[in-house]
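Collaboration report, partner site 2.

Our partner group contributed sequences for two proteins of shared interest, and the home lab folded both. The records are reproduced in the order in which they were received, starting with the first partner submission.
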Amino acid sequence: MATAEGHNASCPELLHQYLRILCAAGHLEECMEALKAAVGRNDCVLMETFSLVAIRHANAGDYSTAYYIVNEMYRDAGYGRMSSNVIGRIRNIQTRPRKGQKVDVFHEDV
């Protein structure tokens, strides 16, 4: 996989697939390091790469990193503001009940 990192400046699709595989394998810290390095080097990073990595972090329960990716890293890469659809998806992941969490469907505010 070192080959993928070495060629990501000229091929953003290769970086995207490399980070996707890292996320799928559960190596979120390594994925984040590679994304930070790419942004720091001013490499071309696809817009969807940021949303992929952010949503994977949100699914893992690391919401602060997910928001850091969509707010700070996305802007630092020169894209401006992240789509509200992606931010909304992270919020939905954050607010949905987790496995084993009891949901009070009939709760009423008094």
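Second partner submission, folded after the first:
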Amino acid sequence: ADDATAATAATAGGAEAAEEEESNEVQAGEACGLTPAQRFRLSDALASIDEEKVAAAYKAWGWSWSGKISEFNLIRVVRELLCIAEDELSDDNVFSLWLLTKQADGFVPVQNL
């Protein structure tokens, strides 16, 4: 019985953590002024990239890669790498995303996206 109780508690804890993470993502999206459709589009696009793809894009653009994305480079990443047009996600929305995810040095580590 104790093993079953522990397993149930662990499963519930994992579900609560997943719900909290999803809630945080929704709150961040809402803070960026994103609609549910925009949040889905951005989330879907971000799921298709990893740090290697971002680094390869930077190399193709002639930029050095540090593992972080600047405010100005985030627009190009969103438009060209994620293929999200301005009519789908405004520059203001991208700027808000940068504000929410940047670190003190003004850059966004790719894993924060």
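Feedback sent to the partner group on the second submission included the following. The mean pLDDT is 80. Residues 2-31 form the longest helix (30 residues).
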